[in-house]
Design a protein that fits this description.
Number of helices: 12
CATH class of the largest domain: Alpha Beta
CATH architecture of the largest domain: Alpha-Beta Complex
Helix content: 10-25%
Largest sheet: 6 strands, mixed
CATH topology of the largest domain: Coagulation Factor XIII, Chain A, domain 2
Radius of gyration: 30 Å
Shape: elongated
Structural class: alpha+beta
Oligomer: single chain
Distance between the termini: 43 Å
């Protein structure tokens, strides 16, 4: 992988420590770049001083929030002019003096790779070209505007200025101290990532906090506060490091948002390249932090830089949060997106299969099922797609979570969202895989007791991809988190009855399934009606019922065999443990309706509490067979239990440098004490992150704790506080504050 000149490879070492101070990367210049001459050379035009007007240029380029910009480093966006003032040792005369501007990036810059850019003064410039225009001069001082190409490489450039007399070989070279950072420019009409709507730019580039949505899609959806922190100290440096490590060498590919986002997607995860975050592995829980303990990207990125190895551990929402930070820092409009009830179609058959069979008593027993995630979080990045036919620009889906290899590496996308919606699964960059996550059929198979063959009993065409959402860019900063979601399901999902129902891939799969199902159903006669009773949200520590309502519509007696299963499942849909199962036979008179229930008590699920790392998710399965007619009813649902709410009491208006106490409260809903308790605080523009132990919380009692912080920058800021303990994970709250100077 590419490293800046003098940048050392990292020594691998384990680290989970959160408290450290970021150490800036030392400026290392190539050996071929001379230093500024300290004395006047007779007959030479020499540069005495260069003023990059960092505050003015960064404000005009929407980069003034970067910590680097606040500390006098120039951060600009490509395709947009920036002003510089140059002072020479004598009066500048265009008729006898020549100026050559050079911008170099990489260890071995070459013009053919767009990494060695050289240009002089010009009267006009073009979008794709670099140029310098003289605006005014007075005495020995000139003011110029430099224009960078709208398709130039993104990264850290060395800036050189060569001066001499026209026709003479003798020259002088000025080398500016420190790199100039050049980013993508979504404000520039000629940039591939141009986004016209200023409200969207404020959200998808400039907003350094937000929400990532979690849950089951059939019950309460939770908004997890996340601190992106793209402007914080050291973050842009680290994002540039990630960008460099994503390419074997500096080349024109680093100017293309398609190539760049695909490389970032690969670098965020760690299976093959020592990426930023390691996937959560249950067999090594003590070697890192639980994914749910993270509430922002800043600590993760600093730990990655400091340790030189992947940070343990992350799940999809962590990968998506870090991806959002890196993309926004580099100038790519980006947002996290959540798909509720998401399939993992590893065999690309666009089905999600559940296999059951009968035991010797006639009870239906689960044997095997494909993976279904309760929810899955990926990213969207906004860009045009000149590499594809017209019409595929706009939001592109990228998934940094390592699920399946793509072209031999663990990355996914960018896939045009419109292509996913239209089912154009042969478009490049994993459109087929992402289409299946949203549109796969859930298929129930039953093994025939006599011949042993598997028969299709039932198919569900709309149980996966139930709801897709992201944060609403127009919601107010102080909105209730429950009111911040924007439904974007229609951007991804096939519309019933529309032309998209003719998608060949789906129709081929569904046609075969319907034939198998029809053969089996031809032997069945349906004269009973089934549906599941609605269930209220359940707070952790409380009991609840699973109830099937069965009504006999016939004039004859009917006998049922019903099986209930209640499992604890992890975020990926894998079974953690069986809470309870019930196999029951019931008799139903003609025209009679009656409920069939199974009750779950806290003791059933609390024994698995130490084996989950986030909110407790349950999977309910119900199978029933009518003995006289072979009619079968099958039902599967995942839901997430309600979690206690963390409340934060903090002054709304605060001054820069003021030490502030935030009061944290919540109620322990369990009949057991909470032990090994931790509080962590994170937020952009604060003095540092906090992470400390607190006292155990007795059963059914209140936690009341104070945690201090000091704001360092003015503006609207969001603090995120996370409570963790052995018994309950991921209790998070946030509060908006306004910081004044």
């Amino acid at each position: 992988m590419y490293r800046r000149p003098g940048e050392q490879s990292y020594q691998r070492r384990a680290s989970t420590e959160l408290h450290f101070r970021y150490r800036p990367r030392p400026v290392t210049r190539r050996k071929d770049i001379p230093e500024i001459a300290e004395h006047d050379s007779s007959g030479s035009l020499m540069v005495k001083d260069v003023n990059l007007h960092v505050p003015e240029n960064c404000k005009n380029h929407h980069t003034d929030q970067f910590y680097l910009a606040e500390n006098r480093s120039l951060v600009i966006r490509r395709g947009q002019p920036f002003m510089i003032t140059i002072t020479f040792n004598e009066e500048f005369d265009e008729s006898k003096h020549d100026l050559k501007f050079k911008f170099l990036i990489g260890e071995d810059p070459l013009p053919s790779k767009k990494s060695d850019v050289c240009f002089g003064l010009t009267d006009r410039w073009y979008p794709e070209e670099w140029g310098a225009k003289l605006m005014s001069k007075k005495g020995n001082t000139v003011i110029l505007y430099i224009h960078t190409g709208c398709d130039c490489i993104i990264g850290e450039y060395d800036f050189l200025l060569e001066t001499n007399y026209t026709g003479k070989k003798k020259n002088h070279v000025y080398a500016h101290k420190g790199p100039i950072f050049i980013l993508f420019n979504p404000w520039c009409k000629n940039d591939q990532v141009f986004m016209e709507d200023k409200v969207l730019l404020k959200e998808y580039i400039l907003n350094d906090s937000g929400y990532i949505y979690q849950g089951s899609g059939t019950s309460q959806i939770l908004a997890k506060p996340w601190n992106y922190g793209q402007f914080e100290e050291g973050i842009l440096d680290i994002c540039m490091l990630i960008l460099r490590q994503g390419f074997s060498e500096i080349s024109h590919q680093m100017s293309d948002p398609v190539r760049v986002t695909r490389a970032i997607s690969q670098m965020i995860n760690s299976p093959e390249n020592n990426g930023v975050v390691m996937m959560d592995f249950a067999e090594e829980p003590n070697r890192g932090r639980s994914p749910s303990a993270w509430s922002g990207s800043v600590n993760i990125l600093h730990l990655f830089r400091e340790s030189g190895e992947s940070v343990r551990y992350g799940q999809d929402y962590v990968f998506a949060g870090v991806m959002t930070t890196v993309c926004r820092a580099l100038g790519l409009p980006c947002r996290p997106v959540t798909n509720f009830v998401s399939a993992h179609d590893s065999d690309e058959n666009v089905t999600n299969d559940i296999y059951v069979e009968e035991d010797e008593d006639g009870n239906i027993i689960e044997r095997k099922e494909d993976t279904t995630w309760n929810y899955h979080v990926w990213n969207e990045v906004w860009m045009s797609r000149p590499d594809l036919p017209v019409g595929y620009g706009g939001w592109q889906a990228l998934d940094p979570t390592p699920q399946e290899a793509s072209d031999g590496v663990y990355c996914c996308g960018p896939s045009p969202v419109i292509a996913i919606r239209n089912g154009e699964v042969n478009q490049c960059h994993d459109t087929r895989f992402m289409f299946a996550e949203l549109n796969a059929d859930r298929v129930y198979w039953l093994r025939h007791p006599m011949c042993g063959n598997w028969e299709v009993l039932y198919t569900e065409n709309d149980s996966l991809g139930q709801y897709v959402c992201t944060k609403d860019p127009e919601c107010k900063p102080d909105s209730d988190p429950k009111e911040t979601r924007m439904d974007i399901t229609a951007d991804y999902k096939i519309q019933c009855g529309s032309e998209y129902e003719r998608i060949n891939l789906v129709n081929t799969s569904r046609r075969n399934l319907r034939m198998l199902q029809a053969n089996n159903q031809a032997r069945q006669f349906e004269d009973m009606e089934f549906h599941m009773e609605a269930r209220e949200n359940v707070m952790i520590g409380h009991k609840f019922n699973v109830t099937l309502l069965a009504r006999n519509l016939s004039l004859e007696h009917r006998s049922l065999k019903t099986s209930f299963y209640c499992k604890i499942v992890n975020h990926y849909g894998d079974t953690v443990g069986m809470c309870r199962e019930l196999h029951v036979g019931t008799e139903h008179k003609a025209k009679e309706g009656k409920p069939i229930s199974m009750q779950i008590i806290p003791e059933d699920y609390m024994r698995f509490i130490d084996r989950i790392d986030s909110h407790m998710a349950m999977k309910i399965s119900v199978y029933t067979r009518v003995m006289q007619t072979d009619q079968v009813f099958m039902y599967t649902e995942s839901f997430q239990m309600d979690w206690p709410t963390l409340h934060i009491d903090v002054p709304r208006r605060i001054r820069v440098g003021q030490n502030v106490l935030a009061k944290v409260t919540f109620i322990n809903p369990l009949s057991v004490p909470l032990s090994m308790c931790m509080l962590s605080l994170e937020g952009s523009g604060l003095n540092c992150s906090k992470h400390r132990e607190v006292m155990d919380v007795p059963p059914n009692s209140n936690l009341v704790e104070d945690i201090s912080f000091t704001p360092l920058r003015s503006g609207d800021r969001r603090i995120v506080i996370n409570f963790h303990c052995k018994e309950l994970q991921d209790i998070t709250g946030s509060a908006l504050i306004t910081v004044t100077k």
